[in-house]
Design a protein that fits this description.
Elements: E1 2-9, E2 12-21, E3 24-26, E4 34-36, H1 43-59, E5 64-68, H2 80-90, E6 96-100, H3 102-111, H4 128-142
Parallel strand pairs: 1-5, 5-6
Antiparallel strand pairs: 1-2, 2-3, 2-4
InterPro entries: DUF3010
Protein name: DUF3010 domain-containing protein
Pfam families: DUF3010
């Protein structure tokens, strides 16, 4: 199963591709670590972001996209642009998109700790949240109650 973890942050979608095959996790080569929306006020830029994301997922045959949920209000609330990006991703036809809460992510990782320190994965620091999201989803799916 191939999963793409997504962490939305301002105009950026930080991505991490993670797969679980034969009880082994793999971080396949991935041509894009981050997709950026150049202008939040342009419908054509938003369409371009959506098409680019859809093409990336199709090229790598991603089974599920897992987006880390952000609060709608409060101190750590997500911005309006992030919610636009989330909607653009969710509306891609034939793409299985799951929103996973930070609480579910923490619980899943607590039950199934990550065996390798993040620094040894070869990923960039800004991809850590996307990696944790993808890992937590795979663990939750594998050990579903």
């Amino acid at each position: 199963m191939k999963v793409c973890g997504v962490d939305l942050n301002s105009n950026d979608a930080n991505l991490c591709l993670l797969s679980l095959e034969d009880e082994l996790f793999q971080l396949p080569n991935f041509r894009s670590r981050r997709l950026t929306l150049p202008s939040a006020h342009s419908a054509s830029d938003l369409r371009y972001f959506q098409q680019t994301f859809a093409k990336l997922m199709a090229d790598y045959k991603v089974d599920t996209v897992v987006i880390r949920q952000r609060p709608m209000k409060g101190k750590f609330a997500g911005g309006a642009v992030g919610f636009k990006l989330e909607a653009a991703i969710e509306l891609i036809a034939d793409l299985d998109v799951v929103i996973m809460s930070p609480t579910d992510i923490k619980e899943s990782i607590k039950r199934n700790p990550i065996a390798v320190p993040f620094a040894e994965t070869g990923l960039k620091a800004y991809q850590e949240t996307a990696f944790n999201t993808a890992y937590a989803y795979l663990m939750q799916t594998k050990y579903a109650d």
